[in-house]
Amino acid sequence: MSHPMFRPRRLREKPLLRALVRETTLSVDDLIYPLFVVPGRGVREPIGSMPGQARLSVDELVKEAKDAAGMGIPGVLLFGVPAEKDARGSEAWADDGIIQQAVRAVKDRVPDLLVVTDVCLCEYTSHGHCGVVEDGVVRNDPSVELVARTAVSHVEAGADMVAPSDMMDGRVAAIREALDEAAYVETPIMAYSAKYASSFYGPFRDAADNAPQFGDRRSYQMDPANAAEAMREIALDLDEGADIVMVKPALPYLDVISRARAEFAVPLAAYSVSGEYAMIRAAGRLGWLDEERAMLEALTAIRRAGADIVITYFAPDAARLLERGAHRR
Ligand code: PBG
User: Fold this and answer.
1) Domain carrying residue 154
2) What CATH number did the domain enclosing 37 receive?
3) Domain count within the chain
4) pTM of the predicted model, to two decimals?
5) CB-defined site of ligand 1, < 6 Å
6) Atom 10 (ligand 1) nearest CA
7) Ligand 1 centre distance from Cα of residue 241 (Å)
8) Which pLDDT tens digit goes with each residue over 228-268?
């Protein structure tokens, strides 16, 4: 009878041994929780395609933010959904815009929580594109100007970090310059560097009401078939002054995360998007998989691929499970 020399199963038998040799950790410290804010008071409007998530008015947002901070979640990523939209998306940089009100309220009431803002025009423009449209084309440079202005207004309202998601060329440099000019030299930029034109944003478009009214985003977001180009996008954003770079979505792009981890010694975020969330929730509801285990497995896989920071709608659920030690079982 021949015996194997190595028996990897030796280290798999006991939970404590498994924990000793575990290569990847998932901690509440790694998580950022995205939230949607709408006008009004006492509004908690469930998002049909994202069970468990809701569009919140500022007062409800403050409660949610307080709960998140109480669970040890380090930061929230805020998206504004304004009452009025126009061609240039002017509420995006309005002093009393929905996101500016939200940032002020959360910073005031929950000071021990990082407030990160998504900087983009698509929730604010009537046509739903992430930039200025002229003759049916999304124009880069005029959009960059407005995006930079929007970023400054978020920081003026108190945002701890801005996260540009528009994918216009040169926006990180423009934002850095505008922030520095406004004396916000210490405010970091988390750039959505490799953001793909993905169908996995579907549920988000219900939540943020930002579906393009014509065409699609393929003239500015990346082709899902490209990975080398993602490295180029990341390098450009770092040159322009990005402090944290991001790959988005996460699960269908683990190879891109892993490659970015190998090529760049900088903090790396991955955004596990609305469609990734919806798939796990939906299958869980149908009884087709164990939702809690699938959630922790997916988040751990994103960390294993190399992400330092995981942006996920599961943040509170994951925080509760991690607190109970569910990931060690
Ligand atoms: C654009 C933005 C989008 C997401 C984050 N920022 C949508 C888009 O590009 O259409 C998607 C997030 C998600 O699907 O969870 N401001």
Assistant:
1) 19-328
2) 3.20.20.70
3) 1
4) 0.97
5) 118, 120, 122, 165, 201, 204, 210, 217, 273-274
6) 201
7) 22
8) 999 999 999 999 999 999 999 999 999 999 999 999 999 99
